[in-house]
Amino acid sequence: MNRARTALVIGGGIAGPAAAMALRKAGVEASVHEARPGTADGAGVFLTLGSNGLAALEILGADARALEAGFPTPGILLRGGGGKELGVSRISAADPVSRTLRRSDLYRAVRDEALGQGVRFEHGKRLVEARDTGDGVTAVFADGTEASADLLVGADGVHSTVRRIIDPKAPSPSYGGLLNLGGHARGVKADAEPGSYVMVFGRKAFFGYVLSPDGEVWWFANVPCKHEPARSELEGISADAWLERLKGLFARDAGPAVRILEATDPSDVMTASPLHLLPHLPHWQRGRMVVVGDAAHAPSPSSGQGASLAVEDAVELARCLRDVPNDPLARFERLRRPRVERIVKAAARVNSSKAPGPVGRVLLEAFLPVVLRSAASGRQVREVYGHRIDWTASAA
Ligand SMILES: Cc1cc2nc3c(=O)[nH]c(=O)nc-3n(C[C@H](O)[C@H](O)[C@H](O)COP(=O)(O)OP(=O)(O)OC[C@H]3O[C@@H](n4cnc5c(N)ncnc54)[C@H](O)[C@@H]3O)c2cc1C
Questions:
Q1: Is the pLDDT of residue 34 over 70?
Q2: What's the whole-number average pLDDT of the chain?
Q3: What CATH number does the domain containing 134 carry?
Q4: What is the number of the ligand 1 atom nearest to the C-alpha of 161?
Q5: CB of 182 within 8 A of CB of 47?
Q6: 161 and 231 in a common domain
Q7: Measured between alpha carbons, how far is 81 from 262 in angstroms, rounded to an integer?
Q8: pLDDT confidence of 258, banded at 50, 70, 90?
């Protein structure tokens, strides 16, 4: 492939705008093509952007809005359902400190930064097909329009279309056995340090909460569910019904879960969604097409790293396009795969500990402190959260 001068980025979530900014920094003119007709304001509840993700955004000159929209989140206190303290896990490097922010605020932050840097966005552009023409690539959208460039970057999330175009035999993301939902509560006392999470391995489900600086409690629940429910089935369950169900699930656990749920207005509850994982994708790239972010490697939300890895991908892809004359996409895959798959694997272990059953729960409470000690060790925290990309170093 000759040096790419232009790129079509498919997907305007987190990886997409970040990739477009990074590519521009490397001298590749990139535009973003997003399926949704409008912006993602209001999508999902909240997430953590790790120190490593913030540092990658800083390289793009795009960290200010995310820093401003979030609050510092240094760690997690883990408890058993009986109230026993199981340990403390650090989820941040010293500088910058990881941030918790509403998902919609992060989407808006990266999009606004990209727009400010001159990236062009096109909405209502759902990619359905892409053709490698040898000297370029042509994207075909559901509305019948087409666009062409030297390169196509699939930043189209966990249910990626680009992934399947690159490799029709690519595995589909698997259902992780948990439903996720969350919300916000006001006027309730929660025994927590502002900014740090408390997470409870409850008897029947997993509950996490964090106190925001303005006194709101942001919470989420992971509810074990053996078979993946259809989207229509989940949409048919009202927020009121979910709140009642969750109160029942957490009734026997120590801690403020039930009080938090009672203080939650149903309009502040996010619709439940099944958790999907994509632990290993055999081919990240082919010819003039490549996938980044969740399209390449969707870790469980237990990793707290999905968004951060997506931004890291963007910066590394740009570095490879800037520095590697032959097969920069293959170099990108080789550079990223080991780190990403290590993090995805570790998160899958945490995921399975969220629904262990009664016997597993006793073992969990006995062994989690040991696991945590290793996860919170300086080396592990440094590897995940202390990871820094050197933009000035050559990727060749
Ligand atoms: C409940 C939950 C909690 C999470 N918590 C955390 C956390 O604490 N920390 C963290 O780092 N990560 C977390 N994550 C993961 C994080 O949200 C994702 O890893 C991150 O959003 C990945 O960014 P992305 O841009 O790759 O994908 P997405 O954000 O999913 O964006 C993909 C975009 O592509 C668009 N698209 C899809 N198909 C097409 C198409 N055919 N054509 C054009 N556009 C298309 C979509 O509309 C979307 O806008 C969580 C995820 C979930 C579901």
A1: yes
A2: 91
A3: 3.50.50.60
A4: 41
A5: no
A6: no
A7: 19
A8: very high
Token pair for 24: 């521009």
Check if the beta carbon of residue 121 is closer than 8 Å to that of residue 12. yes
Quick one: which of 311, 383, 296, 315 has its CA closest to 346? 383
Is 13 touching ligand 1 by the criterion CB < 6 Å? Answer: yes
Question: CATH number, domain at 193?
Answer: 3.30.9.30
Q: How many A from CA of 81 to the centre of ligand 1? A: 30
CA triple 141-233-279, angle to 5 deg:
60
Residue nearest to atom 3 of ligand 1 (CA): 301
- b/e map 246-261, b = 16+ CB within 10 Å: beebbeebebbbbbbb
End-to-end CA distance of the chain: 15
How far, in Å, is the centroid of ligand 1 from the Cα of 10? Answer: 12
Rounded distance from Cα 21 to ligand 1 centre (Å): 17
Q: How far is the CA of 134 from the centre of ligand 1 (A)?
A: 30
- Domain with 264, as residue range(s), is 174-276
Which residue lies with its CA nearest to atom 20 of ligand 1?
Answer: 307
Residue 94 lies in a domain: no
pTM comes to 0.93
Give 189-221 as a DSSP string.
---S-TTSEEEEE-SSSEEEEEE-TTSPEEEEE
The string of pLDDT tens digits covering residues 174-203 is 998 999 999 999 999 888 888 999 999 999
* 272-298: pLDDT as tens digits: 999 988 889 999 999 999 999 999 998
Q: What is the structure's pLDDT at 362?
A: 55
pLDDT digit string, tens, across residues 225-253 = 999 999 999 999 999 999 999 999 999 99
